[in-house]
Description:
By secondary structure, the chain is mainly alpha-helical. The chain has helices at 9-19, 25-36. The longest helix has 12 residues, at 25-36.
Amino acid sequence: xxxxxxxxxxxxxxxxxxxxxxxxxxxxxxxxxxxxxxxxxxxxx
Length: 45
């Protein structure tokens, strides 16, 4: 059943490792602003 998931779990783990720690919070904010393109810029999370 796990082989039929629409996403490779290795990528999810990589994103969590890169963007899920406090030291990389600025990268997460920039990523969210670039991908979501909100009406107002995200400044903190």
